[in-house]
């Protein structure tokens, strides 16, 4: 029986529900005294994340993963003309708020962030009708 205990634990852990993160998220963070304020529209398919994050300078494509309550996503960015990659890694707390760290590559700077759902993602606009002749 003792040999089965690790298997039972791993099996139960593997069945834990993956939270649905498809929504618009408001991110507030700080890296080395520099504020990080973004609105991210995330879409989730199984354990993969996609979408966009928008800050005052640009909208950027996001990729990431979800495993249990651990969420990791990243997107390209820049600071004073230097290309960077921001990687957000955190956990959902009991209220559904995402809290974690920001890693800035290749500089190696670290920061913190929190994110709250701002609502469902905006619907994709329907294609315009073809002009009639």
* CATH hierarchy: architecture: Beta Barrel
Total number of domains: 1
Which outline best applies? globular
Please state roughly what percent of the residues sit in beta strands, choosing from under 5%, 5-15%, 15-25%, 25-35%, 35-45% or over 45%. over 45%
State the helical fraction.
under 10%
What distance lies between the first and last C-alpha atoms, to the nearest angstrom? Answer: 76 Å
CATH class: Mainly Beta
Mean pLDDT: 85
Within CATH, the superfamily carries the name Avidin-like
| CATH topology title | Lipocalin
Order of helices and strands: HEEEEEEEE
**Strands, count:** 8
Report the uncertain regions: 4-14
What composes the largest sheet? 8 strands, antiparallel, barrel
What is the overall number of helices? 1
- From the alpha carbons, calculate the radius of gyration and give it in angstroms: 18 Å
Class derived from helix and strand content: mainly beta
Strand order in the sheet with the most strands: 1-2-3-4-5-6-7-8
